[in-house]
Amino acid sequence: MVKALADRLAEAVAEYLHARARREWGYGAHEQLTPEDLAAERYRGIRPTFGYPACPDHSEKGKLFELLGAERAGITLTDSYAMSPAASVSGLYFANPEARYFTVGPVDRDQVADYAARKGMNLTQVERWLAPNLAYERTNAS
Questions:
Q1: All structural domains of the chain
Q2: Per-residue confidence at 70, pLDDT binned at 50, 70, 90?
Q3: I need a labelling partner for 97 at 20 to 30 A (CA). Which of 3, 27, 56, 141 fits?
Q4: Band of the pLDDT at 142, cuts 50, 70, 90?
């Protein structure tokens, strides 16, 4: 029960901070949203996070944590980029009023190879992080 409560509280705080950012940065200063509007994400801007459909590569969380100094706040990442404590959330704020959530579709081998080269990772590592999005079957060689 405590874990479930902690998870919900972490998400609630993230939503609160997103609402505060929308108000203070001006792109949602005059929002008057009902709880139903919030649940339907009828606000301007988005708060995507790594590991979800728009940003499926969890490994990018490492860069975010380094940039923010997350360990100073007592939040660490496991080898699989899960956050500890488990009731932690991270994400990015995009303030553009035209920003919309989207899902990364199937990714072909050439796209994965290009992404791996830009990240400085080998193809097998990147395939691991993008496995649900691969438009091809991985072989033991890749």
A1: 2-104 (3.10.196.10), 105-142 (no CATH)
A2: very high
A3: 56
A4: low
Give the span between the Cα atoms of 10 and 89, in whole angstroms. 6
The pTM of this model reads: 0.75
Q: What is the pLDDT of residues 114-127, one digit of tens each?
A: 999 999 999 999 99
Tens digits of residue pLDDT in 85-115: 988 999 898 877 788 889 999 999 999 999 9
Cross-strand partners of 77 = 83
Q: Position of tokens 């990714």?
A: 107
Q: Copy the structure tokens of residue 5.
A: 């409560």
